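Q&A log
Question type: sequence-to-structure
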Amino acid sequence: MTALVRRHRLLIVAAAVIAGLLGLLVSSRGSSSFTATTTVVLYPQDPASDLAPTFNQVDRERYAANESVLAVGPDVAVRVMKQLNTGTVDSLRSAIAVTHPLNTDLLVLTSTSSDPTAAIAIANAFADGYLEERKARDQAIIQQQLDAVAATIDQVSKTIADLSQQIQAAPVGSSTEAQLTSLRNAQNAALTTKLLEGSNLKSKLTLNRGSGDVIERPTKAVEQSGLKPSFAGVGGVLLGLLIGLGAAAGMEQLAPLVRSRDDLDLPVPVAAEVPFDRRVQDDAPGAPSIIVRGDERFAESVRSLRTRIRLLAQDQAVRRVVITGPRAGAGATTIAVNLAAALASADTPTVLVDADLRHPRADRLLAFDGNRPGLAQMVLDQDRFAAGTSVPLATTGIDQLRLLPAGAAPNNPSEVIASAGLERLLSRLSEWGSFVVVDAPPVLEYADAPVLAAAADLVVLVVAEGATRRADLRAAMAALQGTQLPRLTLVLNQVRSG
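Response status: OK
Response body:
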């Protein structure tokens, strides 16, 4: 929120000033109006209604909310228009409001008009029109049920008459006579039930009173004077602030990219801000991606990230570090390769694992072109790489840094990543290196990253300034935090400001 206000402060201030001036102008020209209130009590458990006989509190609140809509609906407004012989459906509906006090069975209808007499008449007419409309609807439902019961009674009566004729024609004392008599008795019982049901429905139709009553009518309308200019001005300023904030938020949604560290307003620490370096691009073949030994700002920021991770390793035994991004293009592979090189350059044995089995990049950035088994082969061929044998890691030209490339792409990358063999392999890699840095696929593109995150001590989520969508960042955060990982930190990459 602070970042939003700072970026759009001129817009917000202008909206507040304009709205405040408009508030003063409107209040200076305002006129008095009158309100009148009529209160209706609802009978959601009225035995004469067609509603369910038992309501809990949630049902009662839902029922009252539905009735609030009906009370000022167009059908009721038509009744009011006919009763008062004035206005239109829209004008009458705009003059009435309904509220439902919580935990009560009351509807409070409040009308507003420049004429006090009209305000009283409208409030009363809507209350009466609502009760009439509700009674008409209840009676229509009951009448439909009564018609259905009457039709059933006619059908059962015909069936009984047919059975009686068949009984007379059957031989006396025969099994046929007995079967037909049993059927007729069953039909007689059904007829008795339907006759009783019809009697009950007729009683409902007679006793129905519209599911409510008016318990309080207005005796006089209450004058509502216009706002004082000072109140109108303050209210206008507050409204303008809200409008300005809304407009600013809308503008942010039209350009929903992470544009600065202020956009990372999340309960997760930012471990480093890595500046944009034109020489360091994941997709630039032959780019000098390993520059951690130089004095460039990029190299310094990677060394800063290395320091943060080493401090965490001292305090919380961090050894496995998974590096990923919300989507491709955030620069996660570049950060992973350079972080691994930075750790190794500090005389710390480090293993870099390229776990992006679909689009591996780490081996290319390290200029590795060897013919060695990769991650997928080592996970799938457990017999060949059994415990007790050394893991064939590739050298990289950087002391203390070894590479486990992705290798040949398997048919089922997700199954390889999710297998128990991967956990055993990572444990064996930890025997050689003090740190195991895993370059993982993007979180939102494949299911691999959350699985790898669950096996990590630390997850570094790389976010690219001006490229990563804030919605993608939130979605990636949610996906990673759902794995119950021990620690998550952010890196803001490709920073062009400052």
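Response note: The first strand starts at residue 33 and ends at 42.
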